[in-house]
Write a structure and sequence with these properties.
The protein is of the alpha+beta class. It has two domains: 183 residues, Gyrase A, domain 2; 80 residues, Elongation Factor Tu (Ef-tu), domain 3 (Beta Barrel), CATH 2.40.30.160. Helix content is 18%, strand content 33%. It is built from seven helices and 17 strands. The chain has a six-stranded mixed beta sheet with strand order 8-9-10-7-1-11, with helices on one face. Strand 13 and strand 14 form a beta hairpin. The chain is globular and about 55 Å long. The protein starts with a helix and ends in a 6-residue tail after the last strand. The relative contact order is 0.16.
């Protein structure tokens, strides 16, 4: 079923099978995460989540995360393919802190609820619907997190996942449909193919509330701040549509006509849309996207058609 058919449904549900979970626990868990991530975890309320990045010392993103407080512990939601490498590297920074990190991906089931009536449907099931973006409620239906596009991300213990199998009045869609909506909302996600390619501003991370310039030190913070205040970020993420030929993959190079044979951009995420087209997020030179210079998936290949983002990039 194509994207237009899916969009016509009032409520759709996708099981997020490729999503993983890292549990960060211990007396120093909050302080540890605050010192590692690009966002303010120290003041994160119990009924809020936040987007955050984790960077190398050079300010390049190793992961983009959704940070979910759970009593005095935290759950980090990220692509499952990154859980092992991110957890292993994070442990190198624990030192004497009272912190433990565990892969809890198998212990949780994750779902994405979308559609014009998604939040109303949740309320009809007796759930407390989060009132604002990045707010969270807890109840019999699990953790309900309100995210961009008036969608809800649902997190439930794996042994309770059956309650989300074929719920009445809901159409089941594949995970690609959820990714398509992330793309339309301009929400970036680092995957294995794009690790260490971007500083947060290249992914418009401040526009999706994932970057706090006032919170203090974290790995790469000086590089990120210097790039911001000296205007050194010359590439930004744009949304685009492409039709014809093989669709590119995340991490694949893009090419500008005014730089023959040279890569000028990178695909961040891509998903099938409708009528044989794909929609994608791509990091490209600001000058190229503003000048109208064609940007292509391959030299001489299909050109990208730029589409609007819901925020100013």
């Amino acid at each position: 079923m194509n994207a237009n058919d899916d969009r016509a449904q009032d409520v759709a549900l996708a099981r997020l099978t490729h999503a993983g979970v890292i549990r960060v626990a211990g007396a120093d868990a909050r302080a540890f995460l605050h010192a590692q991530l690009t966002n303010d975890v120290e003041h994160l309320a119990a009924d809020r989540v936040c987007r955050a990045g984790w960077c190398t010392a050079k300010g390049r993103l190793l992961a983009t995360l959704l940070v979910v407080p759970q009593a005095e512990n935290f759950l980090l939601l990220l692509p499952g393919e990154l859980v092992g490498t991110v957890m292993k590297r994070l442990k190198m920074f624990v030192l004497r802190s009272k912190v433990t990190l565990d892969d809890e991906s198998a212990g949780w089931a994750q779902f994405g609820l979308l559609g014009a009536a998604a939040l109303a449907w949740l309320a009809a099931q007796g759930a407390r619907v989060p009132a604002t973006l990045h707010a969270m409620t807890r109840g019999d239906l699990g953790f309900v997190i309100r995210i961009e596009g008036d969608r809800a991300r649902i997190l439930v213990p794996a042994n309770a996942a059956s309650s989300w199998v074929d719920p009445p009045g809901v159409r089941t869609v594949n995970e690609a449909r959820w990714l398509l909506e992330d793309i339309r909302m301009g929400v970036p996600e680092v995957v294995a193919a794009t690790q260490e390619l971007f500083v947060p501003q290249m992914l418009n991370f401040e526009a999706v509330a994932g970057l706090d310039f006032k919170k203090g030190c974290y790995p790469g913070q000086e590089v990120v701040a210097r790039a911001q205040y000296r205007g050194q970020v010359k590439r930004h993420m744009r949304r685009a549509r492409v039709t014809g030929g093989a669709a590119p993959a995340a991490g694949q190079d893009l090419f500008c006509d005014d730089l023959p044979g040279q890569a000028c951009g990178t695909v961040v995420a891509i998903s099938a849309a409708d009528k044989g087209a794909s929609e994608l997020l791509a990091v490209v030179p600001i000058a190229a996207s503003e000048s109208g210079t064609p940007v292509r998936v391959a030299p001489g290949g299909a050109a990208l058609e730029w589409l609007p983002l819901p925020y100013a990039a």
